[in-house]
């Protein structure tokens, strides 16, 4: 970094090939572009919405201090997607996790799984979560395979809950307990 140059991303959690940084409002144009691209958004709830730049800026401003993170490559310091925790319930020790990789040239390269594993370890080790869950469209088979590799198990379905592209699809619910995560990914240091 050049002297006087402002640092754009900050390392909160670091993996082998990527790190997680708190979201930045400056990245709103990139996120808006990704979320309006139907090839990217078809697996997300925003596929049925139009994401305006101003709306994305407001969203990012509202999430700069919670557990929503940009996924940044270590090698290029390039933002490639987003991962976050929502509906954090400290009493029941549960939360929902979500992820997307917007950089299509990096689909299928394991960045989403690495980012999720980083955030899950943080949630179990620092936020004292016991159970992390997610929902995924049944047609998103690549994501389901990735989630299973991370240790998630299917716990239920809402049948024909997602009308998309001329068909009705199941909404799949998956979860993982802390001990299951550590069994797959090893204990903390």
Structure description:
β3 and β4 form a beta hairpin. Mean pLDDT is about 90; it is low at about 1-5. The chain is built from six helices and eight strands, in the order ββαααβββαβαββα. It has an eight-stranded mixed β-sheet with strand order 1-2-3-4-5-6-8-7. The chain is an alpha+beta fold and about 190 residues long.
SSE inventory with pairings:
Layout lengths: L12 E2 L3 E5 L5 H9 L1 H4 L11 H10 L5 E6 L5 E11 L4 E8 L9 H15 L5 E7 L3 H10 L2 E12 L2 E11 H8 L4
Helix pairs in contact: 1-3, 4-5, 4-6
The ordered H/E elements are EEHHHEEEHEHEEH
Strand content: 25-35%
- CA gyration radius, whole angstroms: 17 Å
Class per helix and strand makeup: alpha+beta
- Helical run tally: 6
Largest sheet, spatial ordering of strands: 1-2-3-4-5-6-8-7
Descriptive terms for the model:
30% helix, eight-stranded mixed beta sheet, alpha+beta
Summarize the structure.
The protein has helices spanning 28-36, 38-41, 53-62, 111-125, 141-150, 178-185, and strands spanning 13-14, 18-22, 68-73, 79-89, 94-101, 131-137, 153-164, 167-177. It has 189 residues and is an alpha+beta fold. The radius of gyration is 17 Å and the shape is globular.
